[in-house]
Amino acid sequence: MTEAAEQGAGRTTHEEPPEQVTEAERLLRRRARRLSAYRSAERTLARLGLLAPLRERLTLLDGADAFYDLDEPSDLYGNGIVEALEEKVAGLLGKEAAAFFPTGTMAQQVALRCWAGRTGNPTVALHPLAHPEVHERDAFREVSGLRPVHVTGEPRLPTADEIRGFEEPFGALMLELPLRDAGFVLPTWEELTEAVEAARERDAVVHFDGARLWDTTVHFGRPLDEIADLADSVYVSFYKSLQAYGGAALAGPKTLVEEAKTWRHRYGGAVFQQFPTVLSALAGLERELPRLPGYVTHARVVAAALREGFAEAGVPWARVHPEVPHTFDFQVWLPYGVDELSEAAIRPSEETKTALFINSWVEKGPGLSMTEVYVRAAALEWTAADVRAAAADFVALLREAGS
Asked: Which of 184, 190, 239, 401 is most buried, judging by how many CB atoms fall within 10 Å of its CB?
């Protein structure tokens, strides 16, 4: 046997078996690669604080003395700076009072169980795509003794006629504004006011899941306090749009809020000190809130450019939903599988440091997938031509992967 043959035989004899990777491991690796590519990208439509390294996140509090006296004593179990934030939120939403909560899940459970005690009816009418039904492991039922019912299954908010015609009583109507899992969609102002009136005709209270209520003023053409005034109570988030470290607030009548604070304690939400999170929320209200209308306006430019870019590239079927975004977040649907789309999205981030799609793709049918697009401050540097060009490059990579 020659030396080359011996070496070849040795390689065959000692060759390692191919690595066995489970589907779960494969998805975790792809997620890690996607996040790494996003973090290294120099151009993206959104630079999300929640994905930033700790050192960068801490800079959010730089200059905090411009909007709060840092020589004041720290908070203890919800006083001091926490009360200052609660007062500010109540003022912004035009409500009598507000209570700070560590999570929106807790805030909404507390709000709706308080309303159930007052109305005598634990049934809550909400959309099957609403956050409590999709993302909270049946907490309404399992933790708070509430009974969810669905007024409509359509991918939109319920209409006034659907609310009036629902076949059983409910104590509260919960409306998620915008309805994230349906595409960050909103009703028209007229539709919203009619839906609220229909609920009141049934002697039901109205609660807004306003995690992203801050984003809705452009679509409704109304200020925040006028929008919030439609509801008996409103929950808002501080991290989804305002880039804070976390936290939420429940706003409404003073008597409801005082009762909610009692339940907040019972649920374990009376946290010893919360000043870092509260300071970050105040920073978001001071710095980010005034910029949100501009993001909505630019999201419409980005969405139109994506539609045009896909059409020019000859994609047989592509959808931006809503066609004109209601907020600065929207969906993109494309007729390809998750694997091809994920690879085409990640490669530009790795190779050219430009990230058009930063979120994961979700299978919605055979050969059909969807992703969410976020438009934030980083997107303001993108022109419509930039977006069209990035869409064309993305489609070229898709076709390369397919061939």
From this structure: 184
Answer for the pair 235, 252: CB distance below 8 angstroms, yes or no.
no
Bridge-based pairing of strands 354-355 and 43-44 is parallel
Which residue has 């019972």 as its token pair? 266
Q: What is each CA distance from 183 to 42, 92, 157, 180, 347, in whole angstroms?
A: 27, 26, 11, 5, 26
What are residue 173's phi and psi, to 5 degrees? -110, 125
**8 A C-beta contact, residue 107 and residue 249:** yes
Residues in the chain: 403
330/181 Cα distance (integer angstroms): 10
Place of tokens 């053409």: 221
Return the half-sphere exposure (C-beta side, CA atoms, 13 A cut-off) of residue 250: 31
305: helix, strand or coil: helix
The residue type found at 317 is W
- Contact present, 156 and 178 (Cβ < 8 Å): no
The predicted-structure confidence for 123-151, as pLDDT tens digits, reads as follows 999 999 999 999 999 999 999 999 999 99
User: 75-105 in b/e burial notation, b at 16+ Cβ within 10 A?
Assistant: beebebbbebbbebbbebbebebbbbbbebb
Q: Over the stretch 286-316, which tens digit does the pLDDT of each residue have?
A: 999 999 999 999 999 999 999 999 999 999 8
**Distance, C-alpha 65 to centroid of its chain:** 29
Query: For residue 71, what are its two tokens?
Result: 């020589």
Can you tell me the mean pLDDT for 176-198?
Answer: 98
Contacts of 68 (CB under 8 A, 6+ apart): 81, 84, 279, 282
The string of pLDDT tens digits covering residues 1-20 is 444 443 444 444 456 666 78
CA–CA–CA angle 79, 212, 157 (5° rounding): 130
Structure token pair of residue 92: 């912004």
Token reading at 399: 């076709």
Sign of the four-CA dihedral 382, 388, 394, 400 = negative
In percent, the amount of the chain with pLDDT more than 70 equals 95
Bridge partners (DSSP) of residue 100 are 249
Q: Which H or E run contains 7? A: helix 3-14
Q: How far apart are CA 348 and CA 355, in angstroms?
A: 6
